[in-house]
Each structure stands twice: as structure tokens, then as C-alpha cells.
Amino acid sequence: MRPEEELTEPLIEYDKLRESALDMKKHESNSGQSSNSSDESCLLLDPHKPTHPTSNLDTLIHLLKGNIGTGILAMPDALKNAGLVLGTVALPILGLITTHCMHMLIDTAQLLRERFNTGPLGYADVVEAAFQAGPAPLKRFSTFARRILNIFLCITQLGFCCVYFVFVGTSNKQVCDRYLIDIDLHWHMAILLLPMIFLNLVRKLKYLAPISLFANFLQFGALAVIFVYLVKDLPDVSERKSFASWSTLPLYFGTAIYAFEGIGMVLPLQNNMKSPSDFGGCSGVLNTGMVIVTCLYTAVGFFGYLRYGDEVMGSITLNLPSGDL
């Protein structure tokens, strides 16, 4: 079977299900009976619709949680490598480019979905379909491209998870060493493994929304505490370098690009929405979330570097006074 036929196979099942649903509704209308299977017929009319769709607010919560990670704590260190003026100006530009790339991804997915007349496409599906819709010499590489992308996604997400485990484990160790018991860092990370496994067993984003909301509350609370320290005794802007040096500029871009880490979750979030069309658009969920993310990154980076200057560390939490813990 050719790759072009593989993508159109879901259309055959879709047509059969749709015809079955229409016949069911026509029979109900002619008989004048109120059927209890209206939900089933609606599902048949759109077999690709998620069984537990998320609202716009649920999606925004997940989008914020997926983009605001440990990278935001490294923004002051990033500005140290770029300079106060250049780093502050470049961060919104990078946020704009990232958001534009996300829009390109969802627009491409929609275009390929209409072209192949199939259901919602994931990240790897988009790559495979793009190769199949491209020049003839590239079509045979569609499966290979899909596998390569999945490998890269797994490596990327594994790297993110490793950073989170080390960061959370180190933070827990600092608290436990001061107030409870001094144990090795590896034990703290091992303790985190069990709840992480249970959380990853939840496959529906709708059910994860309350957990993400709780995590966002904790995260914004922590950022509020950090800002309390950052705005104390601020020096004059002229005391900080406007531009650092060309040699450290790649470190700035590396940290900033790492911080904008959420492009891999864009399509899954949109595909699980009750109203996927609300995800894009000028005032859609994506733009709203990314504006919040970019503003937070810029604010933490600006005030963190302004407050501590070249003494700022890889994570701004390391500059905070430990005695106030």
C-alpha cells in the first residue's frame, strides 16, 4: 500500500460511521421517538472528536504549565550573557518567533488534514504527511522522517524531565537538610519517581487540568516570592552592561530557546479541545498564553539581572538568601 493510501484509510471508516449516524437520526425523525442514543449518534457524526474534550480555560492552563518551567529561573543568567538592553529587547522577539512557528505548525496540520481528508494530526503525523504531499523523490522518506522526529521528541522530553527531576530533587534536599534529615540527592529523586509514574498514567488532558491548575498556583506563588526579593534595593540601570559580548551571546540564545519549550504540546492541546478553532486566532488560547509566558520571562530576566548583575547564578533561586527559607 502506498503512503498516500495510508492517510486516506481513516476517511473510509469516517464515511461509514457518518452514513450510519445519519440513517439513525433519519429513522428517529420518521418514527417520532426520542432516542436515548443521541450522544452516540453525535459521536458517530464526528468520530475524531475527543471523548473528554478540554475547555478553552483547561487548554490555557496546560499551555502555561507546559511553557513555564525551570527555564524561567535561568532568564537572569541569560541576560547576563547578552546584556540588559539587548537581552530584554530580544526576549519578546524570540517569543514572537516561537509563537509564529506554533501558528505555522497548526496551520500546516489543518492544511494537510484537509488535503488528505483525515482526522486530527499529531506532530509526527504532520511531518509524515508533509513528506507525502511534497515532491515525488521525498515521498519515500515519509516514514523515516516520522521515526526521526519521534526520536528527537523523545530525547527532548527526556532531557526536560531530567532537568526537572534534578531541580525538584535539589530543592527538596535543601529544605529537608535544614528542617528534617540529611539524605543523598539520589534518594530525593527516587522518591519523586513514584508520584511521577502515577501522574503519567493519566492519559486524558481533561483529568489533568486540576493538577495543572494547582501546579500553576504554586508556580505563580513562587514567582511572586522571587519578585519580592528582586525588586528590593534595585541599582540604577546604568550600572549594568547594555551589551555583554559576542562570545557569550550564543549562551543567551541557547538558554532562551530552551525556555520556550512548549511547541511539542501545541497539536495535542488543540486536538483535545472542545472548540479547536478557538486555539488559534488573534485573541485565541495560543496567543493569550504565549503573551503571558513572554512577559513573565522578560520580567524575571530583567529584574533578576538588574538586581544581582554579574553575580547572578544559573538559577535565580540560588541568589536568594537561604536564611529566609
Automatic annotation (TrEMBL):
Location(s) in or outside the cell: Membrane
Domain of life: Eukaryota
Molecular function terms from GO: L-amino acid transmembrane transporter activity
Keyword Methyltransferase attributed: no
Mode of membrane association: Multi-pass membrane protein
The entry's keywords: Membrane, Transmembrane, Transmembrane helix
Coiled-coil annotated spans: none
Matches recorded under InterPro entries: AA_transpt_TM (IPR013057)
Compositional bias of kind Low complexity: 30-41
Predominant localisation class: membrane
GO cellular component, one term: vacuolar membrane
Ranges for domain Amino acid transporter transmembrane: 52-322
Annotated spans, Disordered: 22-49
Segments crossing the lipid bilayer: 84-106, 148-167, 179-201, 213-231, 251-269, 281-306
Descriptive protein name: Amino acid transporter transmembrane domain-containing protein
Taxonomic source organism: Artemia franciscana
